[in-house]
Amino acid sequence: MTSARTAPVTAELRARAAELLRELGADLPEAGPLSARTPITGGELATLAPSTEAEVDAAIGKAASAFRQWRTVPAPRRAAVVRRLGQLLTEHLDALGELVTLEAGKIGPEARGEVQEMIDICEFAVGLSRQLYGHTMPSERPGHRLMETWHPLGVVGVLSAFNFPVAVWSWNTAVALVCGDTVVWKPSETTPLTALACHTLLRRAAAEVGIDPEIHQLVQGAADVGQRLVDDERVALVSATGSVRMGQIVAPRVAARFGRCLLELGGNNAAVVTSSADLELATRAVVFSAAGTAGQRCTTLRRVIAHADVAGALVDRLEKAYRQLPVGSPLDDDVLVGPLINGRAYEAMRKAIERAVADGGELVCGGERVEIGGEDSYYVRPAIVRMPAQTAVVREETFAPILYVLTYSDFDAAIELHNEVPQGLSSAIFTGDQREAERFLAADGSDCGIANVNIGTSGAEIGGAFGGEKQTGGGRESGSDSWKAYMRRATNTVNYSDDLPLAQGIKFG
C-alpha cells in the first residue's frame, strides 16, 4: 500500500523551508558548499558555508569565555533561559516540527512529537535547577563535617545525529545550561537548517531574559568540524550521538587529553515474546517500534525473539499489519512510513536483506523500493525476515526498517539470544508471567540500559535516564541523575573545631 499522494517537487519544499526559517527568526544561511537536502525528494533545500577552522576555534573561545561568568549565576536564574526556550518552542512547535519533516523526513506526528520532547526536557531542566543535590556524610573526626558539592564543568561539545536532529540537542543543552555549562553544538551535516532554527531560538531566549547569548555556539560542517571539538582541551565534555564507529574514533581522542565523553551509539534492540504474551498488544508495539521513523531510531526494534508456540501466529499478525502500512511523503497526514535519509541507507538495507536470505532467512514481506518523489529519494517497504539463527548480519545494526524474527523454546535460551549482540541500548519483553518479567529485568536478564515490560523498545520518556551499555557507549542523557555527567564533584571537609585530628587516628608530630 502506498500513499495516495506523492512527494511535492523540490522547489515547493525549498520555498517552504525558507518560509519556516523566517518564521522561526533565523536568517537564511549564506550560500556555500554544504548542502541541506530533503529526503522527501532528494533535492536541495538550501546551501550554506561550513564553519572554518578559525570559526570553530572562535566559537569554542566564546563559549569558554562566557562560561567564566555563567558558572557563577545561581542555577535557578540559569533556568530562566531554559524556561523561555521552552515557551518559544511551544509557540513554534508546528513550524519547527514541519522543518524537521522537510529536513529529516519524519512524518508529522513524529516530528511534532520530537519538538514536544524538547519542551518536556525544558520543563524537566527548570525543575532540576533547584535539585542539583549533594550529600553530607558523617565524619569520623569530631568537630568536622564531610560533604560533597557539584559545580559546573565547563564547555560541553554536542555532536548530534540526523535521526533526532533537535531533541537530542535539547536533552544535552537544557541540562547542561542549568548545570552552569556553556554549549558548542555541531549538528549532523544532513540537518543544518533545523540546527540553525534551534540556535536562533535559544539565543533569542537568552537575550530576552538578560543573559549573554554567547553561552550557546553553533558550528556547521562535516566530520572535520566535529573533530576540532573532540580535540580541543577547552571542551570539558563531548556528548556524541551516532554510530559505533564514530564512538570508537571519538572516545580515544577525548581520553587522550583527559576530557570526558558521553556516548550514545548503536542499538540492536530486541523484544522477547513469550507464550503467555498478549499478541495483539505485542503486534501493535512491535510495528511501531520496528517501522516507526522508517527504522531510523537508535531504539528501533530490530529483532523479535518469539516462543515457538506463538511465533507463527505473531508473524502472521505482523505481516498483515506491515502490508497495510502506508508508505509515502511524510507531508501526507495518512502516511506512517516516510523516506530513508539517503541512498546509502537504502543500499545498506538491500545488502542486509540479501545477506540474511543467503544465511537461510525467509523474506516474509517488504524490502522493495517504492517509487515516490524521484530517483534521488528512497522510500522502502518495511521488511520482516524469519531467521533460522542469529547470524552475523542479525548481530549488526542496519539503520533501516528490517525486523528479524527468531524463535526459542527455553527462556534461558531467549535471554542468551537477546544478549548475544555487541550493542546494549533498549529491550523489551511481552509476557503475562510475572516471573518471566522479573527475570528479564534482573541482573541475569536483559543487559541493556533500557528494559521494558509489555511496551516496545522506542518512545523513551525524558524523566528516565536514556542510554545503553556495551557498544552503545555507556552514556546517560535526559532524566534521573544524568545531570551529574555535566558537572564536577568536589568532596569537602570542614573543620569547625579548635583541634586538628587526622583521619584513621593517625598521630603525626
From TrEMBL:
- Broad enzyme group: oxidoreductase
Concerning Pfam families, the annotation shows: Aldedh
Domain Aldehyde dehydrogenase: where?
A: 36-489
Gene3D superfamilies registered for this protein in UniProt: Aldehyde Dehydrogenase, Chain A, domain 1 (3.40.605.10), Aldehyde Dehydrogenase, Chain A, domain 2 (3.40.309.10)
Question: Is the NAD keyword given for this protein?
Answer: yes
Q: What is its EC number?
A: 1.2.1.3
Keyword Methyltransferase listed: no
What is its quaternary makeup? Homotetramer.
Q: Which UniProt keywords apply?
A: NAD, Oxidoreductase
Molecular function (Gene Ontology), one example:
aldehyde dehydrogenase (NAD+) activity
Q: Which family does it belong to?
A: Belongs to the aldehyde dehydrogenase family.
Q: What protein name does the entry list? A: aldehyde dehydrogenase (NAD(+))
Q: Where is the active site?
A: E264
